[in-house]
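Entry for the shared binder. Reason: the reviewer on the internal report wants the predicted structure included alongside the sequence.
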Amino acid sequence: MAIYFHRVTALGLPVNLLVVPLIGLALPSALLTFATLLVRPSLAIVPGTVTAALLHAINGIVRLFSGMAAGDIRNLRSRRPGHRCRHSAHRPGGLGSAQ
């Protein structure tokens, strides 16, 4: 991301270290909810509640970290001196041009 979009996500690793284990718990819980729903719908509320709690926790962690100032560090100088851009979006007649 840093090369093409001139951004660095400083909190990407810590967020993933928190979220990935929760996703590892949410997937089996969701499958158990589905299987229980097929067999006995009235009992599906228990694994469904666990699945919902895990998904809300994942969403809360992502929202918490995305609101932090260190979540997105941008390089204000978008091009190095002498650097020739290869992307059509930055060339005359490329994406976003008025032609």
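Summary line for the report: The radius of gyration is 22 Å.
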